[in-house]
Design a protein that fits this description.
The protein is mostly helical. The chain has 11 helices and 2 strands, in the order αββαααααααααα. It has helices at 6-43, 64-78, 88-95, 99-128, 139-154, 157-168, 172-196, 201-208, 213-244, 256-264, 268-297; strands at 49-53, 59-63. The protein has a two-stranded antiparallel sheet. Helix 9 (213-244) packs antiparallel against helix 11 (268-297) and helix 10 packs antiparallel against helix 11. The protein is extended and about 75 Å long. It starts with 5 loop residues before the first helix and ends in a 7-residue tail after the last helix. Keywords: Cell membrane, Membrane, Transmembrane, Transmembrane helix, Transport. Pfam families: BPD_transp_1. InterPro entries: MetI-like (IPR000515), MetI-like_sf (IPR035906), PhnE/PtxC (IPR005769). Belongs to the binding-protein-dependent transport system permease family. It is a multi-pass membrane protein.
């Protein structure tokens, strides 16, 4: 029987120590994760109790989440329309009985998302360069730009919509400004991170040849990050379509106002029809965005 060399023995000891350290780290991480989950669930009301009357008349206490799940199913069941094969077209017509109004509001919703995305892209693109650590002219401008982007994306777009409805009145203008402002903050962070991951050798070359800060950005950074910018922009447009269909709750235009009316009047089948319209629109936008994104970044081998 041969004896392992000192080097191999040392390697085995180090490997055993590394395994032991990794197991200790995994155990601590798992315990912390479980603790955070329990605390979050407790503060979120997952363990709250409520009294429920059973079918036989008995009153029992159970967790609120278990007591409420059947009501969720009941609510969703109410949104399902009654469709018969023999009268399918007529039933579908009754289901989408306000299709002309909904179509107009759907167009308005998409236009709100389009205009808001356009405003957000312009604002985020211009602010992303001074918000990038590798491109900011100085630390003061870097901090000011970053704090501004954090503020505008921290406030939910629904809150911005309430503020702009107060300022400019009910209508699509408030929705465009609210979503556009929030998109500026969200896209500005993504764009600035793309700038920071860019290869700086091209920038250094332009700088060494006497190029200005704008020349460095224009010819050194923008060509590298433009595929990421387009990809993030298309994703944000899809998100903005969903947002613009919600902010109508507070009078900022779009399909949201119809959702609010349907919920207020308990027109459950209208809710499912509106959901189906929004869902179909998001699917179409997602498919078109994917084709455009792949076309631009060249995944199909036909990049522009």
């Amino acid at each position: 029987m041969t004896t392992a060399s000192p080097a191999i023995q040392r390697f085995e000891l180090d490997y055993a120590a590394a395994r032991k350290s990794a197991r200790r780290l995994n155990t601590i991480s798992t315990v912390l994760f479980a603790l955070c989950f329990v605390v979050t669930a407790w503060t979120g009301g997952f363990f709250d109790m409520t009294d429920v009357t059973l079918a036989n008349g008995d009153r029992v206490s159970m967790w609120k989440i278990w007591a409420g799940l059947p009501r969720l199913g009941e609510y969703l069941y109410k949104t399902l329309p009654v469709l018969h094969w023999e009268t399918l077209w007529g039933d579908v017509g009754n289901w989408f009985w306000r299709w002309k109004v909904w179509l107009q509001l759907l167009i308005e919703t998409v236009l709100i998302a389009y205009m808001a995305t356009l405003l957000g892209v312009v604002g985020a693109f211009l602010l992303s360069f001074p918000a990038s650590r590798n491109l900011a002219p100085n630390r003061i401008i870097l901090n000011i730009t970053r704090r501004y982007l954090e503020i505008v994306r921290t406030v939910p777009d629904l809150v911005w919509a309430l503020i702009f409805v107060f300022c400019f009145g009910v209508g699509p203008l408030a929705g465009v400004l609210a979503i556009g402002l929030h998109a500026t903050g969200a896209l500005g962070k993504l764009y600035s991170e793309a700038n920071e991951n860019a290869d700086m050798r091209a920038v250094e070359g332009i700088k060494a040849s006497g190029g200005s800060w704008f020349d460095q950005v224009r010819y050194g950074i923008v060509p590298q990050v433009i595929p990421n910018i387009i990809s993030y922009t298309l994703l944000r447009f899809e998100i903005n379509v969903r947002s613009s269909s919600i902010i109508g709750f507070v009078g900022a235009g779009g399909l949201g106002q119809e959702i609010r009316v349907a919920m207020s009047l308990q027109e459950y089948t209208d809710l499912s029809a509106l959901f189906l319209i929004i869902f179909t629109t998001v699917i179409v936008i997602d498919m078109l965005s994917e084709k455009i994104r792949h076309r631009i970044i060249g995944l199909t081998g036909k990049g522009v």
